[in-house]
Model the fold of this input.
Amino acid sequence: MKETDSDPRLAGLNVYRVGGAVRDELLGWPVYDNDWVVVGATPDAMRKRGFKPVGRDFPVFLHPETAEEYALARTERKSGHGYAGFEVHASPDVSLEEDLLRRDLTINAIAQSTKGELTDPFNGQGDIERRVLRHISAAFSEDPLRVLRTARFLARYASLGFTIAPETLTLMRKVSRSGELEHLAAERVWVETEKALGEPSPEVYFTTLERCDALNVWWPELAGEVLVKGLAAMAQVPDSDMFPLAHWRHAQLVSPLSDEQRDALSERLKLPNAVAQLARHTALTYSLINHSLTNHALPADALEGASVLRWLERLDGWRKPEQVEGQLALVKVLAPEQVGPLESAWKAAREVSPQALIAEGYQGAALGEALRERREQAVEAALT
Done:
């Protein structure tokens, strides 16, 4: 780690790198961001050194040049429900060890001085060696978001052999059954879930939440066999950068749900419109592919023109062709033999010209009907 003593803004301050950066460096995992804690300083002293205050609930400052976060050492006391139900005490008399004590897991409670020396009061290094996610104290249960965070960390590090300590899993189950998870903001739940969906083993996030009885709080639709099917589908993500990997995985995960179930889940989690829409479109593609594969009156690789046209219409392909292109990437994974016919059908439908129909004398409602009829004819011809 580069020493910060050469930075005149930090001269004379007791500064420590903390949390994920220290943990990941010890693990040999990529480090992208640094977080710092400052012991013995005041907000006024930080402002005078040019740091920009950004914390609403406790003093956090951004370095004016690096934009890295510097938080004053603090303690917390539970005062309400959910993630935000805490009273924060930040002052020069809060020690480094007291600040580390408020953190969730032992592996996240290691501090590193600007000289590279480690402060590890809860033996996080030992748990890194043992590949264990372990809570620091019973205060873990005061913040229900930690249940999701721990599951997310396991989704990140499961491939390294990490497990959750039995006593920590027991505590996670206790929190889930206490009703505290219900007080989390939907937006916070989605933030953690979106991060987990981008981890190397995203399925572990959901199976862990199922093990500790948290899944049925926010994801009751993903129960039993539905979860098994969703996780299997999630492993078949298309090679497409049109949408973020996490959003593709979410769409795949909820593909076994009914339209009503999917919409209910989207509303409960207050999903961004783009995420909910990708899930709907992915479900449409599954429905199209599954219909063609299970319709015994047709060859196994046959597609019906009317069904394909409805698919293109519901994807809003004429106005947003990238949505069709994205789903074609999914078809390439699910049913590669059908990509060629669908691409041909899509190309043929797009070549039907409204201007040509207008030149033929069509207008108003008749124009719309003729346009749809010609597109269906073009799709049928392309498929056969």
Remarks:
- Confidence is low (pLDDT under 50) at residues 293-301.
